[in-house]
Amino acid sequence: MNTTRRQFSLLAAGASFALVAPARATPDSMKASIQAFTGGKPVKEGRVKFDISLLVENGNSVPLSVLVDSPMTKDNHVTRIGIFNEKNPLPDVAIFNLTPRSGRAQIATRMRLNDTQFITAIAEMSDGTYFSAKSEVIVTMPACVEE
After folding, report:
1. How much is the pTM?
2. How many other C-beta atoms are found inside a 10 Å radius of the C-beta of residue 78?
């Protein structure tokens, strides 16, 4: 890590502090976030349609949407949709809470992407089961770069 002029001046003046690197998610931290989201329950592939571009020129604003195959009735509906990534500063991007009154099990948002990575969408159903979809997104100009 490079020392800035301000940090060098503080060190020369006798100040003590720790140089800390910015937080960065990893595939392992993404798995841990998913485990926390699901409570360790198994996640099955299917029922989740994840719509995100496979090639992104600029990672500053990447649109995505998630649609879950669900009747959204009182007895059978999606309760949460989580979005997770493996290389941004934090592994859990967003968690959306839904009810049968949501009408459709669908969300849309934008996110920043730091690098080429896998993005995972997980839906929690009202019966406690989990379904997922994932996509690798290639980013040519990353966001979240701190210089």
Report:
1. 0.79
2. 28
Name all domains of the chain by residue range, CATH numbers in brackets.
Answer: 23-141 (2.60.40.2470)
Whole-angstrom distance, CA of residue 142 vs CA of residue 139: 6
Q: How far apart are CA 20 and CA 117, in angstroms?
A: 24
Cα 119 to Cα 38, 47, 54, distances in angstroms: 16, 16, 10
- The pLDDT-based confidence of 146 (bands split at 50, 70, 90) is low
44-55: string of b/e by CB count within 10 Å (b at 16+)?
eeebbebebeee
The contacts of residue 125 (CB under 8 Å, 6+ apart) are: 70, 76, 77, 78, 79, 131
